[in-house]
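Lab notebook, bench 4. The sequencing result for the construct came back, and we need a structural model before the next group meeting so we can plan mutations. Quick request posted to the team channel:

Model the 3D structure of this chain.
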Amino acid sequence: MIGGACLGVLTGIISGYVPGLHPNTFFSEFDPGPLRRDDLLSFAVVSSAINTPVSKLESMFLGVPDDQTTTVVLIPFQRYTLAGRAEEAARLSALGTLAAALITAPLLPILSGVIATAYDALRPIVPILILAVIGLQILDNGLDGFLIAGASAGAGCLALLGAGVSVPGPIESMLTGFYAVGPGVSCALNRPEVPRQARARASVPGAKLVRCGLLGTFTGVVLGLLLGLGPANVISLLRRLGVRGEDEYIMVVSGVDASDNLSSILALHALGNPRSGASVFLQEHVGELTLGEALTAAGLYAASLPLGTWLLVYSSRVFGSVLTGVRAQVATAIVTAALLALAAHRGPGALGLCLLCSGIGIYALRRGVDPSVCSAALAVPTALKLAGVAG
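Done. Here's the predicted structure in token form:
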């Protein structure tokens, strides 16, 4: 188990620092070789735990997020960074991550006895719940939100449900287009130069931190039951639950990310439902988890998060002294071009889908629409499949 954990730290750091390398892509292409069962378990959860905080650096300094969570904090992170306060944003993210993890982890043994029953009761209405959450996002973003959600859902249905459509890595192509290339182009062309970052601390009252941790925990656990939805989809719900200000927004979204990953480990045991790249990897290479293995994996995940959050804060200082001025613009342009080249290498279908989704993502940012609306590309096809409308 120790060997797998050490390998997980290494791969979590690499995948976290490489822009646009989504964890799902990483796990889908990684060959674990002759690792033992316990090493496979520790490798997957530790790698995910390190990647979760570290990958947020790409949103701060490059504007090239690699997943739903870093996309929804893209704009707040950019505002902090352009004000010279990237380290403060990193500390807020770290606090929200750790607070939710500390609350969620002890709840998992209790949830293990009720999660299967709860899901069986919800199963008939899960597609409706998924579409309702997407509908709430559309409502909050008006006509442009409707157009972007519709275009995103159309791209997702074409790639994931369309008969005879052969696109290498359709999910990766879509995610790269929506969450990396689109924002990357926008930042390279429109973002002001990044100033030198100041050393800063985040001053958060204890009551606010607990409140944000509870909100992150509640939302993350609920997400563990709903296929096709991620942290990006619940932003409209969080605002209705009373999230106020960008500091709370960053803490709660970061907490949702950690809590969702923890509850996903339990969902893999109780429901056989892989909710993340790490869960899919475990289901494929480990198979069914016992309750003891699921709780051990969740404990390892929670125990690894402090290292990931420390790397996030420390790296924000390093990046803040290097990626300043025009260098940040150039780095963003290079990374975006490299991601497009990677899509082209996968074939014309992957490049075409990436460009289509990039255009939708750019339109969303230019119109001031929450980029999380683009995640309808995954949620709507999932809802249709669960409802039996599509195979």
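The longest helix spans residues 126-160.
Will bring this to the meeting.
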